[in-house]
Amino acid sequence: MSAPARSAAVPRLLLGSLRTLQLALPKIGVGWMFALLTSNFNRIAIHDLGVAAVLITVMISMHHFLSPFQVVFGRMADRHPLLGLRRTPYFLLGSLLSSLVFLALPGLAVAMGAGSVAATLAGFGLLVLFGIGIAASGDAHHALIAEVSSPKSRGAVVAVVWTFTIVSAIAAAIVIKVVMGDTYTPEKMQALYNLTPWIVMISALLGILGVEQRRSRAEFAVLQAQAQQALPAGSALGAALALLRENQQVRAFFAFVLLSILGIFLQDAVLEVFGADVFGMTVKETTTFTQTWGGGVLIGMLLMGVLSAFLPLSKKLLATVGGAGTALGLGLLTLCAFTEQRALLNPALLLMGVSTGLYNVGALSLMMDMTLEGATGLYMGLWGMAQAFGTGGASVLSGAMKSLLIETGWLSPAIGYSAIFGLETVLMLLSIALLRAVSVEAFHGVTREDLVRSMEVSAAA
């Protein structure tokens, strides 16, 4: 490379790095909201206020099952830009809606603890609005990343964006601890939750303003024509279902995402309980599980992010290797439970974490590659729906298996948890087998006529 070329490459690399960091900033608000729900709201509502655990866990997990709205909002953004922009307005509106919900949660939690049925119904209603807002903002953000990042840089961008999500959740937990202190009071909880719209909207605005290119009228007309050709009138969900029925590549990739996410997160809700049930570990000891696993995920994602920025690594290979490593870690965890050998626990968690980090970079980059011009929002919504169904299904299935296998006394804790972790291992192996049938090149070989035909079928149904 000549000296002028090298000197020109440095500013491009710097600008690319700054743009990547900007795209990651909205995840600060996302990490904050989920940290409040999963580490504060649930604990206070259940432990301090005495609300039935099943009400709170179902309420918190509802957003996973509202993921079809990602397809709806994705298609809406593809076809109906606002103020000349297809992603930015939907992202900001979704972020605002989801963040405002938190202002009412502390008061509702108190009323739910007092036995108010109206407050319980209102709580479910607010979490439905939260799920809709998350669907709109999440699809818009991921579609924007897919549109403004090149295939070569996508692995590094994904690694940085999702690293921000994990780190922001950890940072949010620290802030929550400082503000709340050692004891719960409604006043301290309200003060904490009042920060949410500010944190979410400031990080959202800093992270998205100026990223999406505002089109001229001529350019906008071309984009509109492309969107109309790719997305004729009809139901967005019907179109997505038609694609799943008729396109083998879409079907295989959707199944891969669904099964792999289900496999990765099936242990998430029961892992700390496993440590207590099988090894008699204290709360302080089991809290290190998340640190070990999460630290491994960060290591894996950062390593692959750096390597992806300089080496032409295959995203499918990354997802395959990461999935296989996760399956191996889950197999080791199964052996740990079955033999009750505590020494295997941390190596299993670390291997799972690092491998999941590799999987994240490969799979999330593949999701962005598996889109078509004019239908980016629709496809990102479809893959997001597979992720959400996998995560939500994992939460429900793990709890059901624990109750059925262990709490009934049918199996001993060691054998019961072995069954749960063993099922995860099988699911990961099945997902890897499905990934073998996926080809980005074959996916992009689908003509627009194929896409139009599938949507016409859905419109006529």
Provide a descriptive summary of the structure in words.
This is PUCC protein. Belongs to the PucC family. It is found in: Membrane. This protein folds into 2 domains: 14-214, Growth Hormone, Chain: A; 248-445, MFS general substrate transporter like domains (Growth Hormone, Chain: A, Up-down Bundle). 81% of the residues lie in helices and 0% in strands. The chain has helices at residues 3-24, 26-48, 53-65, 68-79, 88-100, 105-113, 117-148, 154-180, 186-193, 196-208, 217-230, 236-246, 248-265, 271-279, 283-286, 288-310, 315-339, 345-369, 376-407, 413-435, 440-444, 448-460. Helix 6 packs antiparallel against helix 7 (117-148) and helix 16 (288-310) crosses helix 18. Mean pLDDT is 82; it is low at 3-10 and 457-461.
In short:
Keywords: Membrane, Transmembrane, Transmembrane helix. With 461 residues, the chain is mainly alpha-helical.
Name the features.
disordered N terminus; globular; PucC-rel; disordered C terminus; Growth Hormone, Chain: A; 461 residues; single chain; MFS_trans_sf; 22 helices; transmembrane; mainly alpha
Question: What order do the helices and strands follow?
Answer: HHHHHHHHHHHHHHHHHHHHHH
Radius of gyration: 22 Å
Tell me the span between the first and last alpha carbons.
57 Å
**What general outline do the C-alpha atoms trace?**
globular
Superfamily (CATH H level) name of the largest domain: MFS general substrate transporter like domains
Low-confidence stretches: 3-10, 457-461
Number of domains: 2
Percent helix, as a range, is: over 70%
Mean pLDDT: 82
Number of strands: 0
CATH second-level architecture of the largest domain? Up-down Bundle
CATH topology value of the largest domain: Growth Hormone, Chain: A
Give the structural class. Answer: mainly alpha
CATH class of the largest domain: Mainly Alpha
Keywords: Membrane, Transmembrane, Transmembrane helix
GO cellular component, one term: membrane
Membrane topology: Multi-pass membrane protein
Protein name: PUCC protein
